[in-house]
Write a structure and sequence with these properties.
It is built from five helices and 32 strands. By secondary structure, it is of the alpha+beta class. Strands 3-14-17-16-15-18 form a six-stranded antiparallel β-barrel. A hairpin with a 6-residue loop joins strand 21 and strand 22. Helix 2 crosses helix 4 and helix 3 packs antiparallel against helix 4. The longest helix has 29 residues. The protein is elongated, with a radius of gyration of 41 Å.
Length: about 475
């Protein structure tokens, strides 16, 4: 049998070129992605803001200075003072308020009965809890001095309640009335057991320094265990009418200039009242005077009262002031434009411009409307150059485009590019403004606008 000859011929493998159509397409796509990434990282990004309906809260909270008709009563002899009437209670003429004991025998009886187990009853404990809850609700870290004032008030209140309970127990076993040198109220009024130097202050004598709580000091008379002849022992608020004074800036004073009454809320308890209102100008500064005839007992010992004016706030679309921009537009007489009510956002007109050789060139153009008046349509200035005219239809009348009007607006970015929209501001503060929600060619609720108008321009595509 004949053997097959073994072939020694080697056939080389044909290598595929690296630069095939797939590799080229992938390379182009990869390069495009790199370019897009670089453009995104280096471009200015537009932050959107969604338009909402609302009102401005306004900074209408004030620390008011409470001015009352106050009569300070002084001691007619020296000795240890013991109080019987509770602060904030109303006392009549001749009612016992306190006693002055030269030998300190009353205090010895109080100490003895307290040591024997005299404790506060449930009513007294409820009264203390109420005072602490009220302080907690109105606490502010800005005026930390109030903490020390409250501490002194609480200590003196506990002392007063303890003395009251001890004296009640002591009177059952001893003839305590023979030891008393009672101090009775000379007039009817609400009892206050502190003084601060503001007694006698009237609305007409208020100064800016009177509102500085950092330098305010109040002397708690209940903490004085002994008094000397002629020293203050308590004071009485003798009139139900009292005043709350608030400092006003020029803007707020102008806003309230025509008001004869205001609605306000006490921050301490949330109660809402109306008060007679007037504005006083003293040494170039403005002060609001709220005159009240109620709630005096609730604030009998307070010199500074936190309140909030509840003004009639305007409502509309709320937008940040950073989104607002001013832009100029050309005024085109309406008789030179063709207007279709079915397409109210545009007008058609015949523009005449001049070529470089001086020849007139006419062209029909469509212009987007940004606003209109009784006589004019307002269109973008970029549609015309200096010296351009518009021609009235079926006529040779020409109007030189030159008059401009400035509109206030924002950039709407609903469609992915910036479109100017006019706004009408009806209220504003430092950060936000309220605009009319019924402005033609304006905004609607839930529209998206550029948060910072300086980062975009007309027809710019936003990312």
């Amino acid at each position: 049998m004949q053997k097959r000859k073994k072939s020694t011929k080697i056939v080389p493998y044909k290598k595929t070129s690296f630069f095939n159509i797939g590799t080229v397409m992938f390379g182009i796509l990869f390069l495009y992605m790199i370019i897009c990434l670089v453009l995104y990282l280096t471009s200015t990004h537009t932050t959107p803001y969604e338009v909402t309906a609302g009102s401005l809260s306004g900074n209408y909270r004030f620390t008011a200075l409470a001015l009352k008709t106050e009569k300070v009563v002084t001691a007619d002899e020296s000795g240890t003072v013991t109080y019987y009437a509770r602060e904030g209670s109303k006392v009549g003429v001749g009612n016992s308020v306190c006693s002055i004991d030269e030998g300190g025998r009353i205090q010895e009886l109080i100490a003895q009965n307290t040591a024997d187990g005299s404790t506060l009853d449930n009513d007294s404990l409820s009264y203390l809890r109420e005072k602490m809850e009220t302080f907690t609700k109105s606490f502010s870290t800005i005026n930390f001095q109030n903490v020390y004032n409250f501490k002194a008030d609480l200590e003196s209140t506990i002392m007063e309640l303890t003395s009251e309970e001890a004296l009640k127990n002591a009177d059952e076993s001893s003839n305590i009335s023979s030891l008393l040198n009672l101090c009775t109220a000379p007039v009817e009024g609400i009892l206050v057991l502190s003084i601060d130097g503001y007694e006698g202050k009237t609305p007409e004598t208020v100064t800016a320094e009177d509102f500085d709580q950092k330098n305010y000091t109040k002397e708690n008379l209940r903490l004085n265990t002994s008094v000397k002849n002629g020293e203050p022992i308590y004071k009485l608020l003798t009139e139900e009418t009292w005043h709350l004074m608030i400092p006003l800036d020029q803007k707020t004073a102008t806003l309230l200039a025509d008001s004869t009454s205001v609605k306000f809320r006490f921050q301490k308890n949330g109660n809402v009242f109306y008060a007679s209102f007037s504005i006083l100008q003293i040494d170039g500064a403005y002060y609001g005077d709220l005159e009240l005839e109620n709630s005096l007992s609730s604030f009998s010992s307070d010199r500074f009262v936190e309140i909030e004016l509840l003004l009639n706030q305007k409502t509309g679309l709320k937008i940040p002031t950073s989104a607002i921009v001013k832009k100029q537009f050309y005024k085109i007489p309406k008789e030179y434009c063709s207007y279709d009510e079915d397409n109210p956002d545009e007008v058609r007109l015949l523009r005449e411009t001049y070529a470089s050789d001086g020849s007139a060139v006419q062209k029909n153009i469509t212009a987007v409307l940004y606003d209109q008046t009784d006589k004019y349509f307002l269109v973008d200035v970029s549609l015309f150059e200096e010296g351009d005219c518009v021609i009235m239809a079926d006529s040779n009348k020409r109007f030189l485009v030159s008059e401009v009007e400035t509109l206030v607006g924002v950039y709407n970015i609903n469609k992915g590019y910036a479109i100017f929209r006019e706004i009408e501001i009806i209220d504003e503060n430092e950060e936000y403004c309220i605009v009319d929600d019924e402005t033609a060619y304006g905004l609607a609720q839930y529209d998206r606008i550029a948060l910072d108008a300086s980062t975009v321009s007309d027809d710019e595509i936003v990312y």
